[in-house]
Amino acid sequence: MESNQIPSAVNKDFLTNELGLIQHLNTTIFKKRDFFVLSPSVQNKSNGFDLREVSLNKYNRIAHNGYLLIRYKERFLIAKLANFRKKMMREELKATSTSKTSHWKFIIKETPTLHVVCQTDSDETFPLQEPSSNQLIKFFQ
């Protein structure tokens, strides 16, 4: 990551220019045809990120082909959003904070394989795939 680049902007140009996704306002939501993509950027030393309930509420699993596409450092990690939501974004796993917006907090772990760990319950994990840039371009055509 370039030292002067805003962490949330890392690889955003790839999503919009190469994949043709359109960002919804200033959120982690990106869309293209029936694709609905939540794409948080993980550029911190703790490998942590959060997903807001307000963003998830815009996802319709019937109408949308949903994906979680994490911009992890200079890499991309992907999971089907419906499966991720069902396992990792249950009501009882929401983060407790003074924040007014409901959200879930996660950490990326690389061992033994790439996966997401829920910060509320570390026993809750979800495997991730690491597609190449070319694979993503073909997929989102």
Structural account:
This protein has 141 residues and is α+β, with helices and mostly antiparallel strands. It contains 4 helices and 10 strands, in the order αβββββαββαβββα. The protein has helices at residues 12-18, 53-56, 81-88, 133-139, and strands at residues 22-23, 29-32, 35-38, 41-42, 48-52, 65-72, 75-80, 103-109, 115-118, 125-127. The strands form 2 sheets. Strands 1, 2, 3, 4, 6 and 7 form a 6-stranded mixed β-sheet that branches. A 4-stranded antiparallel β-sheet has the order 5-8-9-10.
**Strand portion:** 25-35%
Q: Which residues form runs of ≥5 with pLDDT under 50?
A: none
Our count of helices gives: 4
Main sheet characteristics: 6 strands, mixed
Helix percentage range = 10-25%
Q: Gyration radius, to the nearest Å?
A: 14 Å
Which word captures the global form?
globular
List strands and helices in order, with pairings.
Blueprint lengths: L11 H7 L3 E2 L5 E4 L2 E4 L2 E2 L5 E5 H4 L8 E8 L2 E6 H8 L14 E7 L5 E4 L6 E3 L5 H7 L2
Parallel strand pairs: 3-6, 4-6
Antiparallel strand pairs: 1-2, 2-3, 5-8, 6-7, 8-9, 9-10
